[in-house]
Automatic annotation (TrEMBL):
Lineage: Bacteria, Bacillati, Bacillota, Clostridia, Lachnospirales
Taxonomic source organism: Lacrimispora xylanisolvens
Alphabetized InterPro entries for the sequence: 4Fe4S_Fe-S-bd, 4Fe4S_Fe_S_CS, EFR1-like, Flavoprotein-like_sf
SUPFAM superfamilies in alphabetical order: 4Fe-4S ferredoxins (SSF54862), Flavoproteins (SSF52218)
Name this polypeptide is given: 4Fe-4S binding protein
Pfam name, any one: Fer4
Record NCBIfam families: ferrodoxin_EFR1
Taxonomy, superkingdom: Bacteria
Length: 248
C-alpha cells in the first residue's frame, strides 16, 4: 500500500507514480487525519510511506497518526521523503518509529522536488519546477525497483550537520516557526472555502466569508498555494512569491 501525506502535491505525484508502477493501492493520510480516522490499515503488500520533509524529519502530524494507527498483516515499511534540499538525519527517527510500531524498516529514499515552503523560502517558477521534477524521475524509478525486489533503500551516512538539523533545529522550528498567526486573506478573497477544504488539520474556518486560522497548523502550505486567486499571504514573507502546486 502506498500511503501519502501532501500539502501542495509533491508527495501525491510520487505516490501516484509508485502506485501505477507497483500496481498497488493509494491511501491519503490527509483524509485520515482530517477525519481523525485511526482505524486499522490492512495491507498484504509492504507499507510505502511517501512524505514531505518538515525540518529534516517527517511531519509530526504524520508520525502521530502512524503511532495511533494499527497496520497489518504486512509491516515492512519503506519511506520515500521528498524535500527541497535534503532530509538530514531523518532515518534515525524513522528507525525509532519503526521500532515502536514493530515495523521492519526497509530504509528511506530522498527525492529532491520543487520547494513549496514559501513561508520562508521561494518556490521555483514553472520552468524550473518542471526541470526539478524531470530530474526526480530516475529516483522514483529506483524506488520502484527496490520495492519490487523486496530489497532495502541504500543507506546514506549522516553528516554532523545532518544530525544537528534533525535533532536540534527540528524542535526549534516547531516551537518558533510553525504557527498560523501570520496567515491572512486579502481583499482578493472570494470566500470560496477551498483553503478550509484542503487544510488537513481542520484549522481554518470561514467567518463572514473570510478564512480565519486557528492554532493547529502544520505549515503544509496547502491553503496559501492552492488558493485559486492567490488571496492568502503569510505576513511579509510571501507577497510576490510564486505559488507552487504539483503537477504543474
Amino acid at each position: 500500500m502506498i500511503l501519502y501525506f501532501t500539502g501542495t502535491g509533491n508527495s501525491f505525484y510520487i505516490a501516484k507514480k509508485l502506485s501505477q508502477a507497483l500496481q498497488d493501492e493509494l491511501l491519503c493520510i490527509n483524509d485520515r487525519i482530517k477525519k481523525n480516522d485511526v482505524t486499522r490499515v490492512e495491507s498484504h503488500k509492504p507499507l510505502v510511506f511517501v512524505l514531505p520533509t518538515y525540518a529534516w524529519r517527517i511531519p509530526k502530524v504524520v508520525e502521530e497518526w502512524i503511532n495511533r494507527t494499527e497496520f497489518s498483516p504486512n509491516t515492512d515499511a519503506y519511506f520515500v521523503m521528498n524535500c527541497g534540499s535534503d532530509i538530514g538525519n531523518a532515518e534515525k527517527y524513522l528507525i525509532r518509529l519503526c521500532q515502536t510500531k514493530t515495523f521492519s524498516f526497509k530504509g528511506v529514499k530522498e527525492i529532491i522536488m520543487p520547494e513549496n515552503y514559501i513561508a520562508l523560502y521561494n518556490a521555483p517558477e514553472a520552468p524550473e519546477a518542471k526541470r526539478i521534477i524531470q530530474h526526480a524521475e530516475p529516483a522514483i524509478e529506483d524506488c520502484v525497483n527496490v520495492i519490487l525486489h523486496n530489497s532495502i533503500f541504500e543507506k546514506r551516512p549522516p553528516s554532523a550537520a545532518d544530525r544537528i538539523k534533525s535533532s536540534i533545529t527540528n524542535p526549534v522550528f516547531y516551537s518558533f516557526v510553525v504557527k498560523a498567526d501570520k496567515f491572512k486573506a486579502d481583499d482578493k478573497c472570494i470566500g470560496c472555502g477551498k483553503c478550509k477544504v484542503v487544510c488537513p488539520l481542520n484549522n481554518i474556518e470561514l467567518k463572514e466569508n473570510k478564512p480565519v486560522w486557528g492554532n493547529n497548523c502544520t505549515h503544509c502550505m496547502a491553503c496559501i498555494c492552492k488558493c485559486p486567486v492567490e488571496a492568502i499571504e503569510y505576513g511579509k514573507n510571501s507577497p510576490g512569491k510564486p505559488r507552487y502546486q504539483c503537477p504543474l
